[in-house]
Amino acid sequence: MDETSKIKRALSNRLAYDNKYFSGQKKHGERKSKQKVSDKQRKIDHLSSRQKKELIRLHADLDKVIIRNSKVTRATSGKQTKRDAKKGNNGNLGVTGIWSSVTFERYKKSCRTFLKFCYENYDNVKSLRDVKPRMVGGFIQSLLDKNLSAKTISAYVSSIIKMSESAVIVGLKSHATLVNDKHRSMIPVARKADRRRGSTGGVGYTLREAQIIVKQAQKHYSLYEETLLSIFLHANPRISEALKISFEQIDFENNCIHLNKKNQNKNNRPRMLPPPSHRHGKTQKAGAALSQ
Q1: CA distance to 31, 160, 209, 292, per residue, from 242 (Å)
Q2: Number of compact structural domains in the chain
Q3: What is the pLDDT of residue 106?
């Protein structure tokens, strides 16, 4: 099958790939039930049944608090956005609350990790009211001892700050000073040169390694999968951005991909991706054939 036929098949409604693992067809049938996470995966298998229940109630308190500070709602035509709430817009004093569902889940996950640390390392922590500033300092120090990156530590502290702001809204005034200047001074300065992947500090693939991976992908995957892998390796989009790329966003004349769909980019900021140059010629010929 030539390149044009392959791309036509990739863009059709019924893909019918002959790949062993990916047919391109939507699976029908009963929905899979949500996979149950074990106590070992949650890292609470060392706790007694009573302690697990207390920790669950502590997490439930957290959920109630941050939900009160959430601005996440279903999309509607007249829905107010974070941009509308910025200082100076419509007489607003500034942005407050949590506006993104992704950010909401990240804050909740990070704060649950913090509360689990407090419960396991301090006595009588059974509600948010029992969380004290010294526990924040102890948590940051534990992150430093694990040699986590400055960006990761800063993200944890930001989540705790948002939790404390939410707690103040529901009446826990003592949380106004939960994170203080001493805690902020413990956060390492995040330098771009020190940025690393993962806790062990991987450096990623070289250009030659990326080219070898793509070449081997041609033997095992469909053109659709191969192109997607090539875009990830060479253009570095976010996963959520790449999954929403459509054919009309590919600019063959300027050799780039326009990421301009609503909710495709972070904060809806349109940007461009340069596609791999070694794929450009084949894709351009196929695109010209499709337009005829």
Answers
A1: 25, 31, 21, 27
A2: 2
A3: 93
User: Residue 50's CB: how many other CB atoms inside 10 A?
Assistant: 8
* 154/272 same-domain check: no
Q: Express each pLDDT in 124-156 by its tens digit.
A: 999 999 999 999 999 999 999 998 888 899 999
Q: Are residues 59 and 164 in the same domain?
A: yes
pLDDT at 279: 47
Assess whether 234 and 163 both reside in one domain: no
Beta-strand runs (E) in the chain: 250-251, 256-259, 271-273
Q: What separation in angstroms does the CA of 132 have from each of 34, 113, 137, 180?
A: 35, 15, 9, 11
Closest CA to 282 of 245, 255, 249: 255
And the tokens for 204?
Answer: 């990623």
User: Structure tokens of 119?
Assistant: 């419960």
Same domain for 60 and 184 = yes
pTM of the model: 0.64
Same domain, 126 and 153: yes
Query: Low-confidence residues of the chain, pLDDT below 70?
Result: 1, 6-32, 87-93, 192-204, 267-268, 275-292
